[in-house]
Amino acid sequence: MTFEEKRVELVKKLRGERRITSIEVEKAFLETPREMFVPESLKNYAYLDTPLEIGDGQTISAPHMVAIMCEGLDIKKGQKILEIGAGSGYHVAVISKLVGKEGRVYSIERLSSLAKKAKKNLENVGITNVTIEIGDGSQGLQKHAPYDRIYVTCAAPKIPPPLIHQLKDKGKLMVPVGKMICNLELVEKTGEQIIKKDLGGCAFVPLIGKYGF
Ligand code: SAH
User: 139 alpha carbon to ligand 1 midpoint, in Å?
Assistant: First the structure.
């Protein structure tokens, strides 16, 4: 099977499991070659629904987790989005398809080696609406705030307050909260009101930093 055929099969599986429910997320997955975001030696495993090692003790998230987060964030074309934890750049590549050419995505990564790789991976697949920054994303990224959506791809001890502050009115924030085994939390901000929803259990590498572990 070619990578493309494997990608189609994976999307079919995620559809069947109701991890992908919208046509937009389905399209974004079909347009993003996961094999371009994993190390050469793991390319043949790129379409298994599992996290994979990407170096520096970090992992590319499992496709079903990326799907759950994309669907839950309800992303619209043209939005401005912040990702904490660029890793391989795969998740942000999918998000870049959801916001389209008019949208803009910023991703902050604390490890410069991974930030460099993510930049290169995104370049290799021709993505131009994503900017990778190096720094402690537990404090958000004030210089481009406020954001329509913010999501964290590592587990935080609790929701970092700067991320709530950097959300627009009616903005949404998704954060895995807990140590290793955690809960995926969705925060919706309307004026001063903050509504939290629990989207269930998940496993992520830890968020390291001022508001992290
Ligand atoms: N979205 C990534 C998943 C990477 S794993 C992908 O699709 O491949 C989580 C990443 O979060 C790791 O690369 C880790 O280095 C990074 N990370 C941990 N704490 C961080 C922090 N405070 N700020 C920015 N990145 C952080």
Answer: 13
Question: In sequence order, what are the residues at sequence separation of 6 or more whose Cβ sits closer than 8 angstroms to the Cβ of residue 120?
Answer: none
143: which residues sit within 8 A by CB, 6+ positions away?
Answer: none
pLDDT tens sequence across 71-107: 999 999 999 999 999 999 999 999 999 999 999 999 9
Q: In 3-state terms, what secondary structure has residue 202?
A: strand
Q: Which domains does the chain have, with CATH numbers?
A: 3-203 (3.40.50.150)
Residue nearest to atom 14 of ligand 1 (CA): 85
- What's the gap in Å between 84 CA and the centre of ligand 1? 6
204's tokens: 């992520």
Residue 112 DSSP label:
H
**Beta partners for 18?**
none
> What is the value of pTM for the model shown?
0.97
